[in-house]
Amino acid sequence: MKNIKETIKKELKKSGVDIDGAILSHPKDLKNGDFSFFVKDKTADISAFSFAELKKNKYIKNVVVVGQFINIYLSDTFFSELIEDILKSGADFGKNSTRKGERIIFEYTDPNPFKEFHIGHLMSNTIGESFARITEWSGAIVKRANYQGDVGLHVAKAIWGMKELSGEMPHTQEDLTKKSAFLGRAYVHGSCAYNEDESAKKEIDVLNKTIYEKSDPKVVELYDWGRKVSLDHFEDIYAKLGTKFDYYFFESETAPRGLFIVEEFLSKNVFEKSDGAIVFKGEQYGLHTRVFVNSQGLPTYETKELGLSKMKFEKTDFDLSVVVTANEQNEYYKVILKALEFVDAEIANKTRHIGHGMLRFSSGKMSSRTGNVITGESLIVDVEKLVYEKIKDRELSDTEKTDIMSQVAVGAIKYSILRQSSGKDIIFDFEKSLSFEGDSGPYLQYAHARACSILRKAKEAGISASVKKTGKSDDDTSGAGDTDADTAGELEKMLAKFADITERAKKEFAPQLIVTYLTELAGSFNSYYANTPIIAESGTENHAKSPYRVALTHAFKIVMQNGLWLLGIEAPEKM
Questions:
Q1: Does the domain spanning 389-567 belong to CATH 1.10.730.10?
Q2: What is the pLDDT of residues 182-198, one digit of tens each?
Q3: Which of 172, 176, 212, 470 could form an S-S bond across to 544 if both were Cys, CB 3.0 to 4.6 Å?
């Protein structure tokens, strides 16, 4: 497809329009054109401009001035070439090179071994993975990183709990889910004891130091077992979510690096001692004070973050490092980045933190039907069960049902998370999230599956996709199904927006723009399908139009699949 935006800008400039003071966008109402320029200069009498040259362009059908708006309507030639371009480009359609050559690392998910994979990790994974894919789509070299706390007080609490609950410890042959669940119980047991029993608290504090020092072989054995169980179990979850990390960083590795940095910059007065600890006084920068080394001489999360920042850039000299966490850590990261400015200004300037909201349920409850707290993993399982109830009677093999159950459940959750800006809290409604009627992940997946079904039927009928116009009128590219008018329909016009939407989503780190677009695109396709005989029987007046309509359906299928990929959502071919 030709770069129509640049073509329009070039021709407008020839017409005397100040394009530097104008914004090119897609009007919300298609009646107002396919593109619209808003001219900011109110003194400019744009109605007096001649758009003769612009109208001569084969991709431009008409130009209409309305107030400060220049509304531009694209020709059928443009839409014909658009469909051809989509079919030819396939999985590459819509990609751009605006970030070609840039090296960007995204850190997200960050679950801690010895603890359960909670809903916050699910949100971070969903948002971070989509950020990474949208950035890759723009030509950047993207690396995915996962930072995990394999040392610290939470580990000591879990291992103390493991010792206390040793009689419940799963056998070697038990599956990962049961082993991971045991670790979760052990952590809760240790955490409660730490808060309620002073003697247990002292034992856990000592154990914490023992873990750092690796001075007790029995503790090391429990530690190694629990760490491996957690990490292996997390990998199963990542596979289901469609994420594959390039780098894994652990607090056990970043802690010594961070300690070295803090000690070095303590002598340079970046940090200072306070009540036996080492702190960074953030108040002088409008922030707050945070402890980097506690009174026991152990590094805190803050110190480990400094070590992590250095280690990331030792992998590659990245142009940007993006960290995705819950927005409850926003103020924490402001202090980290300020301290990092003194330690390494270049890395600090290349690091960006993006906070996301919390996921809540429409019922207001944060526990499952069994009374247990809903983790990220149990949420997926609960939604899978609901999906299975919807598809269990369909003519699908057991393998297909299992695959669809997982794909639709994950898609429903991801759509709910990505449908609004990342900083906002999410209200998750089990029933609405699984609706096949609109504003849901399954709605998009079902539209894609419907297109795949049509394409299978077309193949069986021997109808090949073709953009060549046939039928009563050689100008028919509408696919409208009820006229032979030479006007492109809503579906073609919606497909034309895809590249611009993805580019804007990249600039703003805004997957919700793609979610909104795909929902509208699915609505256009479903309306088209309901009103248009796509595969018409031989001898009928619509039969000659079937090749174009099949081509348009295939183009929709490609764009929907590409858009779902950017969201990290699978595109099933059957549902």
A1: yes
A2: 999 999 999 999 999 99
A3: 470
